[in-house]
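= Protein in question =
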Amino acid sequence: MKKAIIFFLVTTLWIGGCESSGSKDGEHTQPSTKYAKTSEQSTNEASAHKEDGEKYVTTAENENGQTFRVISAYEWVDQYVKKVEDIESKSERFKLWKKVVMDHTQNQCFSGASSQLVEDYVYSPPANLGKIKSQNKVLNVSNIENLTIKALKASSNKFPGPNTIVCILPQEKANYVGLSIGAGRISIFYSSSYSEVLLKSTIAHEYHHSTWSAKYAENYKWDLLGNIIFEGKAEYFASLLYGQPPTAVYNYMNADEEKKLWNKAKSVLHSTDRKKIHTVLFGGDKGFPSNFGYIVGYHIVRDYVESHPNTTIEEWSKLSPKELYEASGYEDSF
């Protein structure tokens, strides 16, 4: 997506490596939930198979013909880890990373309008092999592919969008759950500490970003208000499906505190300065709590929909930030 300041969720933090001290999309501590793979398969369920010579692909489609491909990219990472343990040379490790992982996944998992967001993952092989082994051990006995398909189907039934690819990768240095790098492109960075509801709500959040990008990204104004509303729409969409947005855990402000901080943020709402946007959006600095912009964005969108109950998801999703904010009644809620 052109001029995107961020493109993820939950997914909430800056992908290039913690420029903000706040947490990023999906960096939440949740109860650990392990999953058991199911052997049940039918025409209505996802089925793993080889397609066009590819391994580790799970495909499905919804009733309207929208297709989903879940790529178990962690399987390629697992192969890399098994081969790299006796290699000390950084250059040789990178060559192996490219051959084993990137040559099989880059086009589908790391290419998109905002592919710069995943450059660090592409060009820096994982260093903590023990952590990768641990995450892959859980992934290999999980049903995360079917969980992902179910979340995608639920999301697409509410907000039809483009054919979508989701790549599942083990989390090492990434400190977020998921991100979207463009229309129809989502990556999930798995940790065994993530609960099932966090994973599903993150997928819904990123799916909204992905579908919104396919429909409304052109000429969008990426100032602070634009970023807040962009994330708020995805947070609210996830809450419609799973009861709370991914960043709900950070909503510890009372109304007076939120009002005070919002009045502080209002002075830079139309700023396109990256540092100022990060400060307010991700928080953790200058008095703003973690994920402040996500929480406020969620409240603004929620207040708009509650005061316009007949508005469809499609209608509020395409509203400009200015239109939605001014008609939300958000400040009256204080």
